[in-house]
Amino acid sequence: MLADHATAYVPPGVDLGISEEDRTRHIGIDIGAAAVARGVAERECAPAILGGCSRLVIDLNRPASDDAAVPAISDGTRIPGNERLSAEQLEVRHAVHAAYHRRVERALDDESPRLILSVHSFTSRMRGGSSKRPWDCGLLYDRDDRAARAAIAYFERQGLIVGDNEPYSGARFGYTMQRHAEPRAIPYLFLEIRNDHLSDAGGLARWMDLTVGAVSAALGEGGAGS
């Protein structure tokens, strides 16, 4: 169980130059993703690896060399602390990125899992957006859509509006799965949940249940409501 964008934490010595309100928006953290990943991990008796800093410090789901890994602007918000970074400052950010992906690699070597679940969340509306995103959740993938197909069918049976490589394409924004799952031919669920579903304890509990069902469906074990 992975959550690349699990926290809004900014390490000492890093000043992003933005308000606390912006830091804890969807631009800085995948709201609710850590709770869902932990809850599912406990129920499945599986390890959970959670990203340790804000995605604005370094986006763990991007190549470290990608300019978007340390964004100077996100959803219309300027991030002054990410502008004109020195080589030394970038090296610190890149070290965080490398350490996270080493943890994932070690876990995969040790566990040989049947499935990887990567939990993310997305905002219902981008700033300046004219309409609300319609999907309750989305399954993202690149070349390997085996688990995604089973999960999409499962969520649709629950009466949900499900994005098929929406609200983003896993081919473009799926670095963690492209790096760890696809080369090992491990089926994966790259799950995006609309974050207004994760705003309270009831919503989190519901989506833990739904996600456990999706995992079971992806593993061919059926699941609640299947």
Describe, in plain words, how this protein is organized in 3D.
The structure is a single chain. By secondary structure, the chain is an alpha/beta fold. It has six helices and eight strands. Strands 5-8-6-7 form a four-stranded mixed sheet. A two-stranded parallel sheet has the order 1-2. The protein has a two-stranded antiparallel sheet with strand order 3-4. Helix 2 packs across helix 6 (201-218) and helix 4 (146-157) packs across helix 6 (201-218). The longest helix has 25 residues, at 87-111. It is globular. Mean pLDDT is 95; it is low at 222-226.
Offer a few descriptive terms:
226 residues, alpha/beta, Aminopeptidase, two-stranded parallel sheet, 8 strands, hydrolase activity, N-FG_amidohydro, UCP029730, hydrolase, N-formylglutamate amidohydrolase
Annotate the secondary structure layout:
Blueprint: E1 2-3, H1 20-23, H2 33-44, E2 49-50, E3 73-74, E4 77-78, H3 87-111, E5 116-122, E6 137-140, H4 146-157, E7 162-164, H5 175-180, E8 188-194, H6 201-218
Parallel strand pairs: 1-2, 5-8, 6-7
Antiparallel strand pairs: 3-4, 6-8
Short description:
By secondary structure, the chain is of the alpha/beta class. 34% of the residues lie in helices and 13% in strands.
CATH class: Alpha Beta
**Known CATH architecture:** 3-Layer(aba) Sandwich
Please tally the helical runs, counting DSSP H or I stretches of 4 or more residues.
6
Q: Return the structural class.
A: alpha/beta
Strand content: 5-15%
Determine the CATH topology: Aminopeptidase
Rounded average pLDDT: 95
Q: How far is the first residue's CA from the last residue's CA?
A: 22 Å
Strand order of the largest sheet: 5-8-6-7
The largest β sheet comes out as: 4 strands, mixed
Number of strands: 8
Secondary-structure element series:
EHHEEEHEEHEHEH
The radius of gyration is 17 Å
Number of domains: 1
Q: Bin the helical content.
A: 25-40%
| Backbone shape | globular
